[in-house]
Structures are given as C-alpha cells and as structure tokens.
Amino acid sequence: MKLGFVGTGALSSAIVTGLKSLPGETTPVVISPRNEAIAAGLAARYRDVRIAADNQAVLDQCDTVMLAVRPQIAREVLKELRFRPDHHVISLIATIPREEIAGLVAPAAQVGKALPMPLIARRQGSTIICPPDPIVATFFGRLGGVIEVEDQSEFDALSVVTATYAGYFRYLDTIHAWVSSQGVPRDKARDYITNIYKALADAPDTAPDENFMHLAQDYATRGGINEQVLREMTERGTFEAFAESLERVHRRITGK
Predict the structure, then answer these.
(1) What is the CATH number of the domain that holds 121?
(2) Which pairs from 16-19 meet CB under 8 Å and 24+ separation?
(3) Is the same domain home to 86 and 114?
(4) What is the pLDDT of residue 235?
(5) Low-confidence residues of the chain: pLDDT under 70
(6) pTM (predicted TM-score)
(7) Residue 178 and residue 221: Cα distance in Å, rounded?
(8) Cα separation of 107 and 82, whole Å?
(9) Is 187 found in the same domain as 94?
(10) Are residue 167 and residue 140 in the same domain, yes or no?
(11) Burial level of 127, CB count in 10 A (0-12/13-18/19+)?
(12) Biggest alpha carbon distance in the chain?
C-alpha cells in the first residue's frame, strides 16, 4: 500500500500519527499541502511521510487514497482531480453519501467510507467502515476497533454518534466549573472528574447484555443525589432536546 491523503487536517494527522506509532511501520504516506503547518509537522516527524505538490500529485503517487477535505469544499476539490481505475478510495467525509463520492472519483472502482475518531492517534476507539472491506478493516483494525456495516443507512445512524464529542466535554466542563467555584483547586477537580468518567466508561462492559438506561437506573438510587439530577434534567426536557439535536444532525448527514 502507498497511502495518500487529499486534505491534511486534524483527522488525517491523527490517522498518520496512529499508523506511525506501530512498531516497525513503514507504509509510505503522501499528504496534500493544504494545511501547511500540519503537513510540515508530519513530514518532519516521520521520514516516510512526504508532502505532495498538490492534490493531484497525491493521486498520481498513491494507490490508496483517503479523502479528508471539508464537506463544504469537497465537491469542488474532487471534481478537479483525475482518479485512476485502480485507486482504492476511502472517504472520511461524513456528510456526503458514498454513491455521490463514487461519482466524483470515477473511474475509481473501489470506493468506501470510513469514520475514525480523533483518538485513533493513540490507537483507541472504533472506526466504522461501509461497505465491508478486508483491506480497510485490516488497516483500521491495527489502529483500534472496527465496525463493518453493509447498509448506508446504518452507517449514517452510527455517524451521528460522532457529533456528540463536543457536547460530552461541555458536560464535563460544566461539572468542573461548578466544583472549582466551590473552592476546589482546578487541577484537583479536573483529575477527580477525569478518573471518575474513565471508570464510568468501563461500566457497560460489566453488564454487556443491558442497555444504557439500565445502567442509569442502577446508579439512580431511590432518593439519592443521582436520582435527583436525572429527574431534574428529565423534567427540564434536557434529553428530549438532545434527541432532537441528534435527529437534526442525521437529517444533515443524509440530506433529508
């Protein structure tokens, strides 16, 4: 494999960083020069990462191409490029359907979608791929977990989960700000919150046959403080508003 990236942003950087953290990893990587700082940083850190003159040069030098341009400019960028029939194209652009990508990168015959998360830089988290592809699954499997799906609608629904990262950290920031306002040193509050939520992240593994609501009920002891917060957030429509946001994101991804 000779791997190229059209678009060199945070996600491309995370994938390359995770890949190059593998012992003995020597896959040649060619990156586009669009984000000069990120491209220069990757090329400086890894001797087998090179910066191409432009996006077309990435295609000309590679057999496997990951598309990581912003969705707002993706169509404009891709229609100017000349793909080959032997190109293996993997789109990381969440909001453009695979069928449309396939049309934009014709005559490339092998086209799929993948949705890794930023923690792939540390070889953590799962990457969704559609359709199932043994080469793509093997690649991302070395960098964390892989979930292969046959159906575009299933891929789109799972993609919505990735829209919740910022909200999750805003939730933690609200807790941190309140605890700090009570006179607890900020670093001590941050360490405690971080450790608590790391532990909570493992809770589903302790009850693999139960849904998340079951876990919520387990922690919401009757008359306890967890029950109070859950009840008050529910009464204020917090979760309904959140579900509505997820629905709007889904409509944006699917174009419906």
Answers:
(1) 3.40.50.720
(2) 16/42, 16/46, 16/49, 17/42, 17/121, 18/120, 18/121, 18/122, 18/123, 18/143, 18/144, 19/142, 19/143
(3) yes
(4) 98
(5) none
(6) 0.86
(7) 23
(8) 9
(9) no
(10) no
(11) buried
(12) 65
Question: CA 217, CA 223: separation in Å to the nearest integer?
Answer: 12
Answer for the pair 91, 67: CB distance below 8 angstroms, yes or no: yes
Residue that is last in its domain, among 122, 150, 178: 150
What is the 3-state secondary structure of the chain?
Answer: CCEEEECCCHHHHHHHHHHHCCCCCCCCEEECCCCHHHHHHHHHHCCCEEECCCHHHHHHHCCEEEECCCHHHHHHHHCCCCCCCCCEEEECCCCCCHHHHHHHCCCCCEEEEEECCHHHHHCCCEEEEECCCHHHHHHHHCCCEEEECCCHHHHHHHHHHHHHHHHHHHHHHHHHHHHHHCCCCHHHHHHHHHHHHHHHHCHHHHCCCCCHHHHHHHHCCCCCHHHHHHHHHHHCCHHHHHHHHHHHHHHHHHCC
Give yes or no: residues 173 and 122 share one domain.
no
Mark whether 189 and 216 lie in a shared domain: yes
* Residue 87 to residue 60: CA distance in whole angstroms: 10
Q: What is the pLDDT of residue 208?
A: 86
Distances (CA, A) of 29 to 19, 90, 136, 230: 10, 15, 15, 48
Q: Would you state the pLDDT for residue 193?
A: 98
What is the count of structural domains for the chain? 2
- Indicate if 83 and 171 belong to the same structural domain: no
209: domain range?
163-254
Q: Give the pLDDT of residue 56.
A: 97
Whether residue 101 lies inside any domain: the answer is: yes
89: phi then psi, degrees, rounded to nearest 5? -105, 130
| Domain assignment of residue 211, yes or no | yes
